[in-house]
Amino acid sequence: MDEQVPGIKESIKPLVSVIMSVFNGEQFLQKAIESILSQTYSNWEFIILDDASNEATQRILNQFKADSRFKIIRHEVNRGLTKNLNYAIELSRGEFIARMDADDISLPTRFEEQVNFLRKHTHTVAVFGTVELIDEEGDSNGFWEDDIKAITYQKIKSRLPFSNCVAHPTVMIRKDILQQYMYNEEQVHSQDWDLWLRMVSDGRIIEKINNTVLLYRIHKNSVTNISNKKSAFLKMHNSYKPYLKNVWEEKKLSTFNLLVYVGFFLNSIKLGLSRIKRFFLK
Fold first, then answer.
1. Are residues 221 and 234 in the same domain?
2. What spatial distance separates the first Cα and last Cα of the chain, rounded to whole Å?
3. Are residues 152 and 267 in the same domain?
């Protein structure tokens, strides 16, 4: 599916398609968009799906509609992140797809570094970068430990069966590969982890630039913060199940996927212990 952006010529094809889904993100949206406008690499298009947001979010998005690099699409009914990402992939025209969230900030050289990496490393299907955590005010909260410990493909591969160790909004991925996999719409909160597991299970190489490329905001309404308030073990349990269901149905019982089963088993024990602890604390 390839919709035209008003005012843009078909011959001017962007190399990078940036995809974002936003729902009532007015608090940080302006800065997120401006961080894309400030990129040192400029051959991009920005596809933003407004998922039935409020008027404040719409007013911010309306500021950018005249820019031919933007394709802003509004849904009158909330569809959710996973479906929106798959829709945005189909709309994209770039060779590479970059994720962006409405509350984060991409550092200026992010796209330049990632485009250069993918051009140089032709067997790599996706490249990430490390993140610096920030709060609502934009002040640093340090770094994500799992993120900085897993830089190379081998380290990422060894940690993925047990936890997600790459930051979704830092990814730049080859579109032709992403179209083969797409996001699993059964996954509500961990669509990214599910995607990395499926790709690595098939032998796809994903790597990480050993450099901070994005400021990752943790605030009261962020997905990470909301998930942390719930049982992290329960979230992982519910994320493992659709993935392992597909592994069983497709008979992909590789060494990698056996490790995913081990991760599921260990997490189930932790989930059970956490429930027992909460029971006795009551």
1. no
2. 53
3. no
Strand 172-174 to 96-99 pairing:
antiparallel
Q: Phi and psi of 125, rounded to 5°?
A: -90, -25
Does residue 142 share a domain with residue 64?
yes
- Out of 182, 197, 228, a domain closes at 228
Q: What is the pTM of this model?
A: 0.90
Q: How many CB atoms lie within 10 A of CB 30?
A: 15
Question: Does residue 210 sit in helix, strand or coil?
Answer: strand
Sort strands 16-22 and 44-51 into parallel, antiparallel or unpaired.
parallel
The span from the CA of 130 to the CA of 146, in Å, is 10
CATH code of the domain containing 205:
3.90.550.10
d(CA 53, CA 23): 5
Going by the DSSP 8-state scheme, the letter that residue 168 receives in this structure is: G
Residue given tokens 């002040």 in the structure block: 139
pLDDT digits (tens, 9 = 90+) for 77-128: 999 999 999 999 999 999 999 999 999 999 999 999 999 999 999 999 999 9
